[in-house]
Design brief:
- With 139 residues, the chain is of the alpha+beta class.
- The protein is 19% helix and 40% strand.
- The protein is built from two helices and seven strands.
- Strands 1, 2, 3, 4, 5, 6 and 7 form a seven-stranded mixed beta sheet that branches.
- The relative contact order is 0.26.
């Protein structure tokens, strides 16, 4: 039986752009050098929001407000499966990259699910779809 991970991600939108974190090398080729939402595994005893606060401190050295749940998806990778819950977040101050190959602000209209880790792809598609339907609703 495959290992199942509960994972959280931060949907951070500023001035019509989404914060995307590009993964570096990975033993799992299907996620190497792909974008993902900043976040990570929920540790035992943590709520999703607590895990996201911890991950943002670890990966960005940043404090953030964790808002409402944007979307949850299940993805079955070849070696493991995950449940990914992405929350709307707002950075309270500056940030720095401590873990990823690159951090990039990508305009909503330029989001391409193929550039993202497979679990994140459906969320990116949904985000683009909402952006087209509610232009200006994201800020």
């Amino acid at each position: 039986m495959k290992k199942h991970l509960n994972v959280v991600g931060a949907l951070i939108i500023r001035e019509g752009k989404v914060l995307a974190a590009r993964r570096g090398e990975s033993p799992y080729a299907y996620v190497a050098h792909k974008y993902e939402f900043v976040g990570g595994k929920i540790e035992q005893g943590e709520s999703p929001q607590e895990a996201l606060h911890r991950e943002l401190r670890e990966e960005l050295r940043a404090e953030a407000s964790v808002g409402e749940l944007f979307e949850t998806v299940f993805h079955d990778y070849p070696d493991f499966c995950i449940t990914l819950s992405v929350y709307r977040c707002t950075l309270k101050e500056g940030y720095e990259n401590t873990e990823h190959e690159e951090l990039r602000w990508i305009p909503l209209q330029d989001l391409n699910a193929a550039d993202w880790a497979p679990a994140d792809g459906p969320i990116v598609k949904n985000l683009r779809s909402r952006h087209r339907g509610e232009s200006g609703a994201f800020g």
